[in-house]
Amino acid sequence: MLGKCIMLGKCIMLRCGFYEMDVTPCLGSDIPGYYIRRPSNGVQDKLYVRAMAIEVDGVCALVMSVDAITLLEETRSKAVEKITAATGVPNELILCSATHSHTAGYVKSSRLGTTRDELYMEMIARKIGDCGILAYQNLVPAKAKYAKSDVYGISFVRNYRMKDGTIRTNPGFQNPDILEPIGTIDPEFPMLFLFDEEDKPMGALTNFALHHDCVQGTKYSADYSGVLAKEMKQSYGENFTTVFLNGACGNINHLDVSRPQSDFYAGDGFCYSGYHIKIGTRLAEEARKMYESAIPFNIDVVSGRAELFPIKKRTAPIELLHEAEELIRTTPYQALKDIDSAESVVAKRANAEDIVTFFGLPEEVPVMIQALRLGDMMLYGTSGEVYVEFGKYTKENSPTQFNMFAELCGGVVSVYIPTPEICASKTAYEGQIPVSALTEECGQIMSDEMLKLAKEIM
User: Is residue 305 part of a domain?
Assistant: First the structure.
């Protein structure tokens, strides 16, 4: 019988429901992601929150993805509270992740001359909640299939060791001073497909580790995962919903520095030349192949654990704070017009406000630690822009054979989670305070804590 499987004589009923909602902000709101102010003036493609509800014998979990640069704990907790009140699904069974689109709405604290749209902040929290509730209301008998592909050629590490011994982030196209890349990508592209009892495709849960920074400018865009979602609808119907979890990609982007700059940038040197379409289309092609080869997947239990886990803040000399305060006092941000590197005067002025905020953080900062079990699959969720090494480590040491890893799942701060080597570097962007605000061992600590939770729910 569709929607049921027999295990040890017990009848297991699987139900699933999907929903998606438009969360595109009003024009004129600022777009986060860079060190310059970008008031929005158009929509290249709409932004969405997407949800999958999955229930086994009355126990339901929700997996959600929102087109936003990050997911602050204030937003996540408001949405979860609304979902729980309406459905009874508890916090530990709700995983919500931001895609990290650099052309989405302003959901961070106001900074650098930008203004956070408080009405939008309230709206997006309520819509995330509504989307989860409506996915729950759409629960119907279902069955699952699974497939996985390794995808190469669209994701690349962005930290490089230079011939002078320094570590640089995106050191420039065809730079002759590059010695070697630091680390490797995570090519895994898994797909969990869900079908109703008439064998009609309902939607999919998927995961890939690649920065959503392929689109620039002042128009809203969901970036490459939005292209993937559109392509899947074209293949499997307008109601097909693709819930995309961005993997550990703090040090992974789409720029292959061995190729010429013209392969990635338009002639004005600013706008990318449709590269998000190339990536989204490529992933959709792989997804269609996997749809045809997917095998039945057993989901006989739903369980989860989630907690805000305290991580120590990095130590920093008080002189750093004094320098930041002096820079803010003497250099009006509005007088600076351009930025060309993370070491420029503009970037230092832009970071000064975040340095002040960093010194105001408590000595221990709560981060999200989450493990959500869907039968033979474990979903891991945590805070920050996590380096690929920790995503791979967590999946490789998971008690389940099938795994997905999602970053930017809430927590008090949205920062990079780099390796100790990058933290020790004086030149790699992701290792600098304030974009790296937690102790150098935070990535390993967070991974080990997620694995503890996973073992507890097995």
Answer: yes
Residues 251, 295, single domain; the answer is yes
**Among positive and negative, which fits the CA dihedral 195, 406, 343, 423?**
negative
Tell me the average pLDDT of the chain: 91
Q: What residue numbers bound the domain in which 337 lies? A: 314-360
CB 417 within 8 A of CB 387: yes
Sequence-separated (6 or more) residues with CB below 8 Å from residue 333: 112, 113, 349, 350
- Co-location of 193 and 337 in the same domain: no
Tokens of 10: 């017990």
Q: What is the pTM of this model?
A: 0.94
Decide which of 322, 339, 360 is a domain's last residue.
Answer: 360
| pLDDT tens track for 382-410 | 999 999 999 999 999 999 999 999 999 99
What is the maximum span of the chain, computed from C-alpha positions, in angstroms? 74
- Indicate whether 39 and 57 sit together in one domain: yes
User: Read out DSSP for 269-308?
Assistant: SSSB-SHHHHHHHHHHHHHHHHHHH-EEE----EEEEEEE
Q: Given pLDDT bands bounded at 50, 70 and 90, which one contains residue 342? A: very low
109 and 43 housed in the same domain: yes
Please state, in angstroms and rounded to a whole number, the distance separating the CA atoms of residues 280 and 151.
12
pLDDT tens column, 187-228: 999 999 999 999 999 999 999 999 999 998 899 999 999 999
d(CA 419, CA 430): 10
Number of structural domains the chain divides into: 2
- Tally Cβ neighbours within 10 Å of residue 188: 19
